[in-house]
Design goal:
Blueprint: H1 2-36, H2 43-69, E1 70-82, E2 86-91, E3 96-100, E4 106-108, E5 126-134, E6 139-147, E7 152-162, E8 167-172, E9 177-192, E10 196-199, E11 210-217, E12 223-232, H3 239-246
Parallel strand pairs: 3-6, 4-6, 9-12
Antiparallel strand pairs: 1-2, 1-5, 2-3, 5-6, 7-8, 7-11, 8-9, 9-10, 11-12
Length: 247
Amino acid sequence: MKKNFLLLFLPLFTIHYSLFTIHYSLFTISTIVAAQTPTPDNDSEGNAIDQQITDLKTRIASRVAELNLVEKRGIIGSVTDVSDTLITVSDLKGDTRFIDVDELTQFSNPTSKDSFGISDIAIDEAIGVLGLYNKESRRILARFVNVMTLPIIIHGAIDSIDEKLFRVKVISENEKVIYLDVEKTTTTFSYSKDKGLVRSGFSKIKGNERVIAVGETNTDENLITATRIILLPEIPKDPKQENSAKK
């Protein structure tokens, strides 16, 4: 009888023990999960974080808009006015440009051996500017300002040639007399419809030819040191230039 009772009791005990083990395991897992889950922030801390995120987004958007509004740009022009923080320039198109300068702006002049700054820039001086162009204000915040010598371009007709001085007298399109000094470094070309641009020289320059010359001014504004000369023998001289030569 006892044997039969034990055979009946053991399966029931085993089932209850298994259920107890399952409940204990579930309780243990719940305790671990609860311990690992962080305590949620209160409302004030949550609002502070949201505000920081909003401020960051605003700063990023503002910076992107600023970058889209500014671009690097360079111009060349003649100085029309200058102050401690502003240079007014007439560019190659004749448009007025305003150049702002600050403590980061660097100035240079190839002909100056001493330190060079904005106070050394003169009216009518040619400068090249590289800086940040603001599309809204249309002003340039200069980063580099360099004094430079702009090349002079002459369109006219050859009136006479001085073979001893290697000098060519030219009547320009505005009927002004210009003398071209031809140096060893001067490159001379001749252009024709059939041959195109052909290398030439001083000995091949003739009177009554149309000419385009590029050079630099000297102390005499009517005297140009030519760096390049292009002869146009097939283009006739303008009658106005011929009459100016006779005066």
